[in-house]
From TrEMBL:
This is Mannose-6-phosphate isomerase-like protein (Cupin superfamily). Keywords: Isomerase, Metal-binding. PANTHER family: OXALATE-BINDING PROTEIN (PTHR35848). One of its GO terms (molecular function) is metal ion binding. SUPFAM superfamilies: RmlC-like cupins. The keyword tRNA-binding does not apply. Residues 75-135 form the Cupin type-2 domain. It holds the Pfam family Cupin_2.
Length: 324
């Protein structure tokens, strides 16, 4: 049985306006086309390769919460993870693409849409909107699988722009006079034999089981919260956490609690959260961590569209692979 995350006595909130970005989080930080992106680590250590990355909440949850902010036409390079990776669009329009060269398939997501990308697939994403956009990310496991696996061409391109990734998962900027420490070799590039094990699913394969549209989920959550990602979710999977959508129609003031820390992430409207000993108001882009065992409830505090994603760990990583 997996161990429960340690309990913390207080609710913790990270405001959207207080997020601290890192512009050198990954190996492609200097590569043209990817050099203007910002990475945010909200809960857990994430997978950043930079010592400059700020972590807002370090309490283990069984999963990590992060975000990527990018101006138009800025992209995140092709990579893979050892645990599941889920994104929902907070603002803007985003193109997600996948495959060894990024041409196996793609989908464009709008605000509130969600995609569950399992392990074993190279994926990237690009802001195809007209303004700065933000996507929120959920990664399985407390250590997020130990880092990022980059497509070989990403590592090779980065060398031309001064960034070298060590086998220790840390970045070194040769343009700043940095070099790999003694005894640390460069990150190994995957062989062609290893690359052959990475699937190339088509868009037709991915859309039905790995993408859910916000407006469809809102309709499903009209009377009760809808499980989006979970064993019996709209997108069935067991990536180590469950994601549900709560709307105005399904919100209740009846309090409840969980045996693990849970996270509230509004995507539309303002939400009032009350718990034993306190209350707060959340807006889109805010992230609230509710400790295990704390009785709480959340409901919209103003008129208009209102929805939030709710995340809680399950400790079960059995489904975090591509099944074809």
């Amino acid at each position: 049985m997996p161990l429960e995350a340690p309990r913390t006595a207080e609710v913790q909130v990270v405001r959207y306006g207080e997020l601290q970005p890192c512009k050198t989080a990954f190996i492609d930080a200097h590569t043209p086309g990817s050099d203007r992106k910002e990475n945010f680590t909200i809960i857990g250590g994430g997978v950043s390769e930079s010592p400059d990355q700020h972590v807002h909440i370090t309490t283990p949850h069984g999963f990590n919460i992060g975000a990527a902010g990018q101006p138009p036409r800025c992209r995140n390079s092709l990579h893979s993870h050892r645990t599941a990776e889920v994104f929902f669009v907070l603002s803007g329009r985003w193109r997600f693409f996948w495959g060894r060269w990024g041409d196996a398939g793609e989908v464009v997501l709008e605000e509130g849409d969600i995609i569950n990308i399992p392990t074993g697939i190279f994926r990237g994403f690009e802001n195809v909107g007209t303004d700065y956009g933000m996507i929120m990310a959920i990664l399985g496991g407390d250590d997020a699988g130990g880092g990022v696996i980059w497509a070989p061409q990403v590592i090779e391109d980065a060398k031309d722009h001064g960034l070298v990734l060590g086998e220790n998962g840390k970045l070194y900027d040769t343009k700043e006079g940095q070099a790999l420490p003694e005894g640390v070799a460069p990150m190994r590039v995957l062989t062609e034999e290893e690359l052959a094990d990475y699937p190339e699913p088509s868009t037709r394969d991915v859309l039905p089981r790995h993408v859910a549209r916000y407006l469809d989920l809102v309709a499903l959550a009209d009377r009760a919260p809808v499980t989006v990602i979970g064993e019996r979710g709209v997108l069935p999977d067991r990536p180590g956490f469950e994601v549900a959508l709560v709307t105005r129609g399904s919100a209740t003031r009846e309090r409840h609690d969980h045996d693990r820390p849970s996270v509230l992430m509004p995507v539309a409207g303002h939400w009032r959260v009350e718990w034993d000993g306190g209350s707060d108001i959340l807006a889109p882009g805010d992230t609230m961590s509710v400790p295990a065992g704390l009785s709480h409830a959340a409901w919209p505090s103003m008129e208009g569209d209102a929805a939030l994603y709710h995340v809680v760990g399950t400790g079960d990583l059995a489904g975090a692979t591509w099944k074809g």
